[in-house]
Design brief:
binds magnesium ion; Rossmann fold; alpha+beta; binds adenosine-5'-triphosphate; OB fold (Dihydrolipoamide Acetyltransferase, E2P); 9 helices; elongated; 2 domains
Length: 375
Amino acid sequence: MATVTLADIRKSYGALEVVKGVDLTIADREFIVLVGPSGCGKTTLLRMIAGLETITSGELSIDGRRVNEVEPDARGLAMVFQSYALYPHMSVADNMGFALRMAGVGKAERARKVGDAARILQLEPYLERKPGQLSGGQRQRVAIGRAIVRSPKVFLFDEPLSNLDAALRMQMRIELARLHRELDATMIYVTHDQVEAMTLADRIVVVNGGRIEQVGAPMEIYASPATAFVAGFIGAPKMNLLAGRLLRLAGGAAVLLEDGTTIPLPLAPPLAEGEAVTLGVRPEAVSVSAAGPLPGRVTVVEHLGGETLTHVEIAGNRLVTVKTAETAPAGVGEAVRLAFDPARLHLFGPDGRAVPLHSPAASGAAIPLRTRKHD
Ligand SMILES: Nc1ncnc2c1ncn2[C@@H]1O[C@H](COP(=O)(O)OP(=O)(O)OP(=O)(O)O)[C@@H](O)[C@H]1O
Ligand SMILES: [Mg+2]
């Protein structure tokens, strides 16, 4: 059992505040993924939870007990870092059991715990090897093994897979999902990787400039980003975001883009005529169509195998990305017109916050079907 609660957590280095009041309740056995741009405070948050960094103000609780002043060792958590820093002269088994030996755990008990972790991580064949005789993925598993043997209630991961190549990352991602099921521990995981965030998380926490922008299930954040920042951050390729002004029309509303194109909205939002807005549309909700309202010219076509990204330049040197299956809808240099699926438009007000454009029933239908994570 381990719930983790952050209440108005702040961190300052001198006069510089880098974590600016974070409130978050993490449920027992939840897999929480923190994402956000470099420097937004993810590692600082994790280190404060771990006890490696003092908390300037606010309260951190584990299972309802304040732990701000509790030593790292006594918090019942274990942290896995990006650089796994194994002891090169020690075997895999000794690396994994080192913390237990330091804690005075007996040899038999140590061997049992290391054996259990090795089984879970499929490291049994390598226990007598030195780290230098392992692949990157195997080393990363040893680093995770070091955390597992301590039977923590909470695992903290700081970009544990970013040193691995794409294939290994995918393999380790699947193993982490399995590990989470098998260990039934609470996991707090920091990553830059969209796919890791989308596939591993029960809930994603999007952090920006030391604050939480949005917390939600992966598909909820993908389908209904609360801010233009989240819209642009979650999803690869990113959502197309186009600046414009709100036009109120008889019986509806539209966005007047900078090039003079008007894009009708499915619902009149509660904004005044002329307000600065941002129209958002994911690349899969844009199509090339002779009847489309937005003119442009194809500049680059990227064939990724199963999908193709067509980048279309519109007025003002802006690019709009269109995502299709294998074939591109037009060739490089071709003049095209773009149409947006009205059911999948997003609108952000002058403050960058999402303005509802769809009745709840309609927006439900607009959520793209994706298989959901590891269950
Ligand atoms: N010891 C320190 N003294 C002063 N500023 C610091 C210190 N440690 C971190 N910072 C600043 O705090 C901010 C948050 O850093 P943090 O390491 O938490 O970012 P991050 O989100 O983990 O970024 P990345 O994705 O690059 O790892 C940064 O602007 C960083 O420069
Ligand atoms: Mg970091």
